[in-house]
Specification:
This protein is α/β, with parallel strands linked by helices. It has two domains: about 25-110 and about 310-360, no CATH class; about 115-305 and about 365-430, Rossmann fold (3-Layer(aba) Sandwich). About 40% of the residues lie in helices and about 15% in strands. The protein has 16 helices and 13 strands. It has helices at about 30, 40-55, 60-70, 80-95, 115-125, 130-145, 165-170, 200-215, 240, 245-250, 280-290, 310-320, 325-330, 340-355, 370-380, 390-400, and strands spanning about 115, 150-155, 180-185, 195, 220-225, 255-260, 275, 280, 295-305, 380-385, 405-410, 415-420, 420-430. A hairpin with a 4-residue loop joins strand 7 (about 275) and strand 8 (about 280). Helix 6 (about 130-145) runs parallel beside helix 7 (about 165-170) and helix 6 packs antiparallel against helix 16 (about 390-400). The longest helix has 20 residues, at about 80-95. The chain is globular, with a radius of gyration of 23 Å. The two termini are about 45 Å apart.
């Protein structure tokens, strides 16, 4: 188990009718974990359960889940809370594949709550999970567009343009004066947290009002693609591809293009699909299209973990050893019963449910590590841009606003956000080969 992670806490057993099992029916190796919340023991239980499910041994899986149910708590310490969401995901998986073999008292589906814009700002500020990427890449973008009179940002992100007010404010103070700024976003996004109760058009109007207040010429465009997206599984990013052309995007003379991908590429399938010309994944196809637009900089930010494996046991191991980070970070400053904390953790739980419960096209959480993503970018014909010392200083200043466990390091082509020394989020900047300084 990794250094710095909460490791051992004893908790009382509680009776539950959630699963049809009793202590005496549990194998001896599993009974040894009853009443203990040792991280290594929980990980072994999760792997036992995943292995049982992969071999269709539902009885053993049910027994292991009974043990997990006796150590999980949604209002306990970080390990208990993480285990609670892993257990929900396992219950959801078994119920989907074998609906008659499991009985449980409540739905395992995570509630999706819509928040207002002000709430979204608080959500983003809670821990530097998103702000790290905003800060690092806004600084890189600001440097890349120095002296440019017209800038067009093609924005693919899940945070409803929360990144851009800070950049607009910086551009307003630019010594040579602000550029004319245009931001283009797709009309449809994966239905993943955070979710807001305002439309993309309303987001654009709010940005426009802020830009006007800061005297920055501004235009907001929406790529009107598939507006019938009802849930995560119906989101098909490839429907955007046909709109990513210079005429459709209305690319203009003297206008430099910035492509921003924040927590987004993971929702493009990484599996190769045979086309008329070659075998390529949607991620590689997207990057090829973006390269053809000749951007002055492309930003890629995401969580630094590899959750693309087809093996359930591999995904559970990675999930458990990675997503403890936000649970542990929230523990440092929010009470156990804090509504804000419970809602944030519920959003993480939604990701866990997708990682563990689903397969095929329904499993949209397909993270790959920063190292793998960097290699993918290089294979696609991009060269990395190192982050400047000024950017590093800005990020460090940002992290000073948060708990002391947060840190930052350089790692090959990446700037990496860490929690107690463990990688959590990576930020990278790229240009098409041949455009390096």
């Amino acid at each position: 188990m990794k250094t710095g992670r909460p490791n051992t806490t004893s908790i009382p057993l509680h009776n539950s009718s959630l699963f049809n099992a009793t202590p005496n029916s549990i194998p001896g190796a599993l009974r040894g974990c009853l009443g203990s919340l040792d991280g290594a023991c929980i990980e072994k239980l999760l792997l036992h359960c995943a292995s049982a499910l992969e071999s269709n041994d539902v009885t053993l899986a049910q027994q292991v889940m009974w043990v997990l149910n006796n150590v999980a708590s949604s209002v306990g310490d970080p390990n208990q809370r993480l285990t609670s969401y892993c257990l929900r995901a396992l219950v959801s998986r078994v119920s989907s594949f074998c609906p008659t073999t499991m009985s449980f008292n409540s739905s395992s589906t995570i509630h999706r709550r819509l928040m207002g814009v002000t709430e979204l700002a608080g959500y983003v500020d809670l821990i530097p999970w998103h702000r790290f990427g905003f800060c690092a890449t806004n600084s890189a973008i600001f440097k890349a567009i120095k002296g440019c009179p017209r800038v067009h940002i093609l924005d693919f992100s899940i945070t409803h343009c929360m990144q851009w007010p800070t950049l607009i404010d910086a551009l307003a103070k630019r010594p040579e004066g602000p550029p004319s700024l245009r931001i283009t976003v797709p009309s449809c996004r994966p239905l993943v947290p955070p979710l807001v109760n305002v439309s993309t058009k309303e987001v654009g109007l709010r940005l426009g009002n802020f830009a006007k207040f800061r005297d920055v010429p501004f235009e907001f465009n929406i790529i009107d693609v598939d507006t019938s997206c009802k849930d995560s599984s119906s989101f098909h990013f490839e429907s955007v591809f046909s709109h990513l052309t210079p005429p459709t995007l209305n690319l203009r003379n003297e206008e430099v293009l910035v492509v921003n991908c924040q927590n987004w590429l993971r929702y493009l399938s990484d599996e190769s699909i045979r086309s008329a010309h070659q075998d390529a994944s949607l991620r590689d196809t997207f990057l090829d299209i973006i390269k053809g637009l000749n951007p002055c900089i492309i930003i890629v930010v995401d969580e630094d973990s590899d959750l693309s494996d087809s093996s359930l046991t591999s995904r559970i191991t990675t999930c458990f050893n990675y997503l403890w980070i936000p649970f542990d970070a929230l523990e440092t400053f929010l009470p156990k019963d804090s509504c804000q904390r419970l809602e944030y953790e519920s959003d993480i739980g939604q990701n866990i449910e997708n990682i563990i419960s689903y397969e095929g096209f329904q499993r949209i959480e397909r993270l790959e590590s920063g190292a793998k993503m960097c290699q993918r970018m290089k294979n696609a014909g991009f060269s990395s841009i190192p982050f400047s010392e000024e950017t590093v200083r800005e990020v460090k200043f940002l992290l000073d606003e948060h708990a002391s466990g947060w840190g930052m390091k350089r790692e090959d082509d990446m700037l990496v956000l860490t929690w107690k020394g463990h990688n959590s989020v990576f930020a990278t900047a790229w240009v098409p080969n041949g455009l390096e300084d």
